[in-house]
Amino acid sequence: MKHSMMKRGFLALALAMVLVLTFSLSAQAAAKEGEDYMVLAKPIPNMDKTVIKVFSYDCPFCYKYDKSVTPEVVKIIQKDGIKYTVWHLKTKGKYGPQASELFAALITKDEKAKVGLFDDKSSFKKAKMAYYNAYHDKKERWGDGKDPAAFMKTGLDAAGISDAEFQKLLKEPATQARLKQWEGAREIAGIQGVPAFVVKGKYLIYTKSIKSINGMAATIKELMAK
Amino acid sequence: MKLIEKIAALQDRRVLWILLFVVGLALEQVAYQIFQKWLYMRPCEQCVYIRFSMVCLMIAGIVGAINAKNLVLKVIAYIIALYGTVKGIGFSLKLIKIGEAFRSGDPFGVQGCSQTPTFPFNLPLHEWFPSTFLPTGDCGVDYPIVPPDAELSPLQKYLTDAYVDGWYLIPSKHFMNMEQSTLLAFGTIFLVLVICLVSWVVVEVKKRRQSA
Fold first, then answer.
1. Do A64 and B105 make contact, defined as CB atoms within 8 angstroms?
2. Other C-beta atoms within 10 Å of B125: how many?
3. At what angle do helices A148-159 and A123-132 cross, to 10 degrees?
4. Is the domain of A103 the same as that of A204?
5. Which of A72, A100, B38, B193 stands the most exposed, by the fewest C-beta atoms within 10 Å?
6. By CA distance, what is B164's nearest residue in A?
7. A106/A19 same-domain check
8. Which residues of B touch A59 (CB under 8 A)?
């Protein structure tokens, strides 16, 4: 009598464990709204095939992602024809507005030369990494807001362009349009901070739910297919 | 008188509650006056939440000290104090996780910090007291950022140099970082509070049984 009850107990326990396991496995497979991502109240138009990364030079985890995660993820998703673009957040950091202007201008330059954002020849990438490196590794603060010229010099030197060339690029309609679009970065960054990844202009991935490069690529593909 | 009765009796006097207030105030002042103002270490989002927990301890101390013999006040003080320490432990643990991700090459599983904090009960503390509650730093970054035009005293120079890799209780050994230290502080206070509360309840129950 006792024996059969114990047996039944074991069976129930085993069944419960199997159930828990299947649930946790299926949970891993599908991205859950509210846990892995959220739907933006105001979707960004014309982003159907695109992933946007909202970032700031003044953000340690943006640097970490750009160093080892985002380039790898982009390599994977590009195979599926998914486009990748960046929005710089001008409201973070003492030189947020300056950095936005320079980055927007440099992307215009790269686009003209048909150079990708992660290409080693990309002037945007060169300037971005120079800022990351100076700010996070060398703890450079460029006078803490009092010396914008010194800040600009770091980026211009890294990108290998003169201030005159930058001013010319800045005036181009493509640069101005980009800067206008980047105004939207503030609202997205306000939700959970940066880096923030938005798929299809609609789904914001919760950065803390990202566990690996492959996992992140899978989540992006899944949301893109929605 | 047994130890448990001594501990219970102590709470009917103001001294213990004033001590709680002083501990909360001291932690908060060390964070603000010494680390932030004097050593140029910038508070992050989790850091200002931890300060909120410290303020809870101060408020609990004040409530308890109004009239230490009053049952209602005592219960309220305990609730605020335990709430504050539990929150403080939670914020410290979260910062430990973020700090580890920040220091390692593996950035996964955490969200960097926001510049706009959301305090418990949606209190707009960062709007009311921005100097103390507005985060100006990033989580994990607790090394001093000295303005270029600052003139440091020899002691300031010594300390800011010692904390150049981030703040540690013993900088040369990289022993106990900031978030581990706040965890230890809140953990200790929590333990003391629980011991006091249990002693008080046990003695109180005994007294009532005897008089019944």
1. yes
2. 20
3. 130
4. yes
5. A72
6. A139
7. no
8. 112, 138
Calculated CA dihedral for residues A184, A185, A191, A196, nearest 10 degrees: 140
DSSP conformational letter for A43: P
* Interface list for B 80-99 with A (CB within 8 A): none
Instruction: Determine the distance in angstroms separating the CA of A124 from the nearest CA of chain B, rounded to an integer.
Output: 23
- Residue A110 shares a structural domain with residue A192: yes
Residues of A within 8 A of B112 (CB-CB) are: 59-62, 193-195, 207
CATH code, domain carrying A116: 3.40.30.10
Tokens for B72? 């209602």
Q: What is the pLDDT of residues A39-75, one digit of tens each?
A: 999 999 999 999 999 999 999 999 999 999 999 999 9
Residue B190: per-residue pLDDT: 97
User: Same structural domain for residues A6 and A105?
Assistant: no
pLDDT digits (tens, 9 = 90+) for A137-157: 888 889 888 899 999 999 999
Q: Which chain B residues are closer than 8 Å to A207 by Cβ? A: 110-112
* CATH class of the domain whose range is B3-211: mainly alpha
A140/chain B closest Cα distance in angstroms = 9
The total domain count for chain A is 2
The verdict on A28 touching B (C-beta cutoff 8 Å) is no
The DSSP-derived string for B41-77 is PPP-HHHHHHHHHHHHHHHHHHHHHH-TT-HHHHHHH
